[in-house]
Amino acid sequence: MKKGSKAAEPDTTGIPSDTARADARRGDTRRKYDPEQTKRNILEVATQEFSAMGLTGARVDAIAERTNTTKRMLYYYFGSKEGLYQAVLEKVYGDIRALEQDLHVSELDPVDGMQALVEFTFDYHDRQRDFVRLVTIENIHGAKYVEQVKTFKGRNVTVIHTIEDLLARGIATGQFRSDLDPIDLHLMISSLCFHRVGNRHTFGTAFGRDPSHPRLRARHRAMIVDAVLRFVRKDD
Amino acid sequence: MKKGSKAAEPDTTGIPSDTARADARRGDTRRKYDPEQTKRNILEVATQEFSAMGLTGARVDAIAERTNTTKRMLYYYFGSKEGLYQAVLEKVYGDIRALEQDLHVSELDPVDGMQALVEFTFDYHDRQRDFVRLVTIENIHGAKYVEQVKTFKGRNVTVIHTIEDLLARGIATGQFRSDLDPIDLHLMISSLCFHRVGNRHTFGTAFGRDPSHPRLRARHRAMIVDAVLRFVRKDD
Amino acid sequence: MKKGSKAAEPDTTGIPSDTARADARRGDTRRKYDPEQTKRNILEVATQEFSAMGLTGARVDAIAERTNTTKRMLYYYFGSKEGLYQAVLEKVYGDIRALEQDLHVSELDPVDGMQALVEFTFDYHDRQRDFVRLVTIENIHGAKYVEQVKTFKGRNVTVIHTIEDLLARGIATGQFRSDLDPIDLHLMISSLCFHRVGNRHTFGTAFGRDPSHPRLRARHRAMIVDAVLRFVRKDD
Amino acid sequence: MKKGSKAAEPDTTGIPSDTARADARRGDTRRKYDPEQTKRNILEVATQEFSAMGLTGARVDAIAERTNTTKRMLYYYFGSKEGLYQAVLEKVYGDIRALEQDLHVSELDPVDGMQALVEFTFDYHDRQRDFVRLVTIENIHGAKYVEQVKTFKGRNVTVIHTIEDLLARGIATGQFRSDLDPIDLHLMISSLCFHRVGNRHTFGTAFGRDPSHPRLRARHRAMIVDAVLRFVRKDD
DNA sequence: TATGAATGAGTTTTCATTCAT
DNA sequence: AATGAATGAAAACTCATTCAT
């Protein structure tokens, strides 16, 4: 919410934003209409609202209010509340998969690669709470909105390829067991990284311990890496 | 209302109430004036609706319609939509913890006990999707409703005690490593059992594989037991 | 409200109530059914609720809750919410007129009698806020409920007779002017005594001075007596 | 909402707004999009309903029906039933105080000024029954809504200033007694003017005489002026 | 491209009253 | 005489969306 309202008054900081600079280049101090910026602004606010309140809990009015524009524009660009929600999903899912490709674990030793993958997954979930929440929300709705996000399925294959590659190389070197399914392993890693973020509130009130607390963060990270490596390693 | 919710619990005692006995005598299962049955009926329907639609998505009218009573009774007994939602949470959280106590893992060998605990946790989540969904929904609302459920915090301690006991005995016999935190371990087990149920829809559409499919079920169960045991076992 | 709940548990004081004593006389420690007491109890609570909330603002449930009985009894004895309201009016109007007759101003010198009447009127309104509020409420409803209170009209004639008598005697002695209408004079006295009680809340917030404050009470009393006497006195 | 209520006031300036001018040009009095008119219309209808039925007795639907708009707009502009009620209070209290300032009693001889003030007060209450009823209603609610009307307290000081001025000048000329408190005097004048309007129904049924009848009106007006002047005049 | 006003259908909640025991 | 459960009709309020400017 604060983030949202901050975004609405960047001109008070004195620091010219990207778009402001672009404006300046073209010679006008304040562009009146900037569709891209407007859309981006709406999406940002919507991401927060949807991830905070859920699809049904989110209020179109609430989103519009924290936006630089009006409600009408929201419909102009995204057609409907659901359309906006889908746009948010699209953006958010795009981000994580894009990052995963930058990992280059294929250049690492299998064990190190596996560790890097787990740590990346951990860090991503730990930081991108909006993503975690939105996935959660999607599941409440039976994933029927991501299904319509065209780019969704393709993107997920890459992780599996990464894991397949790691497993194959680890088996070859005798470091990893050979009876593992890559998708199952991905599920395992996801589980460990996701749950502590997604359900941190109930966990926190149940055990008086917030799993997202910085002190626990490091311990959990190490624990999860440890658990996964123990799981994939070949017994000797 | 307090009187109401208290009165709602005696059915768990197994001792039939006076009215229940009177019913039995007459042989009719559906009496017109049966507050306990009315409440139970409302709670059941509400559990389904809330877990299917979320707190904001659920419709009081929809719940009432599928009930033997009218919408009015829902307010009569539970005060408000939120009150009903909380009653559902209370019931659902009560169920799992009650079952956990029936496990009697303290009578088993540490490794067997740990396996039994993991298998129980797995099975419970696998079967009680409503529970999983409701926890998810609670987390979207920052757990603010479960916080108000008085019995909630106390109930959760028991799992931790069970794990503490298992760990202590396993350490004593040299089977388990001694550097584990029981709450962290509980989090790990929960993660593995929860995620595959709670996020099965996005997982399903992402990888074309429904993790709740019976064939995968057994494999996941074994995998999770395996992973946890590898994690807690002492290296030699 | 406090008064109400206190009335509901008089047995905790240890001081036997009138009815309890009556019970004792008859030899049973606690009478189970006492229709008169029940009715009285309901009326008392209803008087408070109606005077505090108005006819439309009052809640039958709220009244029933603060009663020793249940809502059903309220309908049993008074038929409806309106019936109960009327019963309250009847009781409350009966009280003031009964008291007025005890004044015996006819035995006093006209000026002293007038002063006594004004002081009595002042004191009554000052103390019986419930009465004042109920009159106010009745006027919002166009007095349509008092109209149905049979004893209502007759009761009011007595005040006018009292004033007529005072005026006549005062005129005879040359103390009072002869051009006054008794009903108008009654209206004037009522106005001065009623307004400061009935509208004390708006008056209080408007001028930061609560006209029902004890310190102001005496001043207002003297002022009103003064004003009335100056008004009725014959100029010389 | 703030923007809305601010925008609602410029019509008192007498300067026609742009849209009003545009209207005039086209010659149509009822435009489809005219927020000011919409708000004014709602307020007018609401004033009647609230004053006739009280806050709890008033029906939002009933107000909406007699409006040119729908119920929704009522919430759009005033937020809630209570919000609308408060807006009504604000308007109605504003009116009387505004008029009082137009009296210019400071230019009159103290006795004439006092008479003018009393007559004004009398006439206002006699005509503005809605105002009287609403004040009555507010007092049933302990003035808690008027308390929240920001402009309320400030407005009331002006009457007191007027009275202070009159008293000071009257004392200086030797026409008025010097022992009077201006707020008490205001209370007295209000009492006399308010009661006969506010409680005319019970008074009417009690004494078979409607104090608001035109024939009584003049007599009461003279009587009250007389009473007040006798009260403030210095004895000689 | 942008805006603020407007809307209808729906959603939660309340309330006086009655029924079965 | 007394009770707590039950009820239907109505009331307040909300929400995604569209219209006029």
Task: Give a short overview.
Four copies of one chain form a homotetramer. With 236 residues, the first copy, chain A, is mainly α.
Topology:
The structure is a homotetramer of 236-residue chains.
Chain A: H1 2-8, H2 18-26, H3 35-57, H4 60-65, H5 71-78, H6 81-101, H7 110-127, H8 129-140, H9 152-172, H10 182-198, H11 200-207, H12 214-232
Helix pairs in contact in A: 3-6, 3-8, 5-6, 6-9, 7-9, 7-10, 7-12, 9-10
Chain B binds a DNA duplex (21 and 21 nucleotides) through residues 32-35, 38, 59-61, 69-73, 75-76, 80-81.
Question: Which key phrases capture this entry?
Answer:
DNA-binding, 236 residues, Tetracycline Repressor, domain 2, 72% helix, homotetramer, mainly alpha, disordered N terminus, 12 helices
Explain the overall architecture.
Four copies of one chain form a homotetramer. Chain A has helices spanning 2-8, 18-26, 35-57, 60-65, 71-78, 81-101, 110-127, 129-140, 152-172, 182-198, 200-207, 214-232. Chain A is elongated, with a radius of gyration of 21 Å. In chain A, helix 3 (35-57) crosses helix 8 (129-140) and helix 9 (152-172) packs across helix 10 (182-198). The termini of chain A are far apart. Chain A has twelve helices and no strands. Residues 1-30 of chain A have low confidence and may be disordered. Chain A has 236 residues and is an all-alpha fold. Chain A has a domain at 90-232: Orthogonal Bundle (Tetracycline Repressor, domain 2), CATH 1.10.357. Chains in contact: A-B, C-D. Chains A and B meet through helix 3, helix 8, helix 9, helix 10 and helix 11 of A and helix 3, helix 8, helix 9, helix 10 and helix 11 of B. Chain B binds a DNA duplex (21 and 21 nucleotides) through residues 32-35, 38, 59-61, 69-73, 75-76, 80-81.
